[in-house]
Amino acid sequence: MTSVAVIAAHPDDEILGCGGTIVRHRQAEDDVHVLILAEGVTSRDDKRDRYVRSKELSALGDAAHKANEIVGSTSLTIFGFPDNRMDSVDLLEIVKTVESFLVEKNPSIVYTHHTGDLNIDHRCVHNAVVTACRPIPGNVVDQLLFFEVPSSTEWQVCSSETPFVPSWFVDIGGTLHTKREALKAYASEMREWPHPRSLDAVTQLARWRGATVGVEAAEAFILGRMIRRKLEL
Fold it and tell me: Which residues contact 157 (CB under 8 A, 6 or more apart)?
């Protein structure tokens, strides 16, 4: 059994980025621990208070728990960093939050955001996770992977940031349906076609990522680091 961590900025990012892969891990009897760092609501408000608690935030939290129950996540932790303003928080504060989570869950595989996403919170989380997973002696993280999030990754222009060029693919032909069901739990966050964060667009992206590697559907990642502790001959 492997311990896996999925570290995302907002509720729904974890399913958009690697929902089908979470199901695959659970089918393999791996533990999957999800950490969501930002509350995901207050950027829509005229007045934005840090660590706000509201009915809308509570509803989004309920949706996150339902979605992660559908994909079978072992645990879900939702923190309270300010939505779309994580750059207003000291990076060290975010790093320490991630480090505490990693110490508690002890994962050997970590999934998180791509560095070049348009969304500022995604970039802050990426930087914090890479820092927390630095390969110092005793670090147990062997595999670090970066996922794409529709309506953020592809909205960035390639002249501004590093483009998303995947080097790692997970076959989700048998788990795409479950990913779609989990996204339905996030109905308030989903949009209508042709928005990239629609069920149709997510499905077509998975089909295209699959077609590029010869399977029915896939989720794509960039491999950040892979440490082979034991070489099997």
Answer: none
Q: How many domains, in total, are found in the chain? A: 1
| Domain membership flag for residue 233 | no
Q: What is the pTM of this model?
A: 0.94
Q: What is the pLDDT of residues 89-126, one digit of tens each?
A: 999 999 999 999 999 999 999 999 999 999 999 999 99
On the 0-12 / 13-18 / 19+ scale of CB atoms within 10 A, 190 is: middle
Q: Which CATH number covers residue 163?
A: 3.40.50.10320
Look up the domain containing 189 and give its range: 3-226
Does residue 161 lie in a domain region? yes
DSSP-assigned states of every residue in 135-183 = --TT----EEEEE--TTTTTTS-TTTS------EEEE-TTTHHHHHHHH
pLDDT tens digits, one per residue of 67-97:
999 999 999 999 989 999 999 999 999 999 9
